[in-house]
Amino acid sequence: MRNVLLKNFQRNLVWVMIILLIGACAPEQAAEDVAPDPTPLVPTLGIPPTATFTPAPTVTPEPETLYLSDGLPEGLIKLDELIGINLSANPDASFWLGPAENAPPGEVLVTVTWVYALAAPFPTLMDNISLNELQAYWLGNPAGAVDALAQLFVPDLLARQLVGVWGAPDETRIQTFQQPPEINVLWEENAWVLLPFEALDPQLKVI
After folding, report:
1. What percent of the residues of the chain are helix, what percent strand, and what percent coil, each to the nearest 5?
2. Domain boundaries, the chain
3. Fewer Cβ in 10 A, N or C end of the chain?
4. Alpha-carbon torsion 100, 71, 184, 201, what sign?
């Protein structure tokens, strides 16, 4: 009897163990579906559009201009050396070059002294005359040796200056010019000439 009970107990124990093992191996009951917590909304910061940079318009500087007064001595300024400056026919240009008494209002940047010489054909016997004698000849009142002189050639610009200093010239004796006369003309017409010192020719002599 004891053996039967023991066998029954062992058999029941095996079944219990098997049930437990099976139970342990059985799939777990599905958990109840739980609604997920709502995901909090993250506020989106608005980013303003990037502004397009527009550079301010630049003003192109006007080129500098130079006005040359009429009758300036030839060679007074070398035009081919003017860099970045354009010649202008407008007296209101950036720069003005001409006789001091005709200069427009503005700052004086530089002054130039232009020296003229009284010259005659080289074989002329007379060597000198005074300034007073030259002025008298200009006015038509020659005296002494210059009385025999037929004509005096004077540059236009210088003639205008002398008018302001000495008065109106004797037009029968004073001849103005823009281009100096040929030396042979001076010789043939018994004439002298006033020239910028730099324009003197070896065939002329200074009186």
Report:
1. 30, 15, 50
2. 64-102, 116-206
3. N
4. positive
pLDDT in tens, 4-39: 444 444 444 444 443 334 344 334 454 455 555 555
177 phi/psi in degrees, rounded to 5: -155, 160
Q: How far apart are the first and last CA of the chain?
A: 176
Residue 48's pLDDT is 60
SS3 87: strand
Integer angstrom CA distances of residue 169 from 22, 75, 153, 200: 147, 26, 12, 24
Q: What is the pLDDT of residues 72-81, one digit of tens each?
A: 776 777 878 8
Helices (H), the chain: 2-25, 131-138, 156-166, 183-188
In this structure, what DSSP letter does residue 91 have? T
Whether residue 185 has pLDDT greater than 80: yes
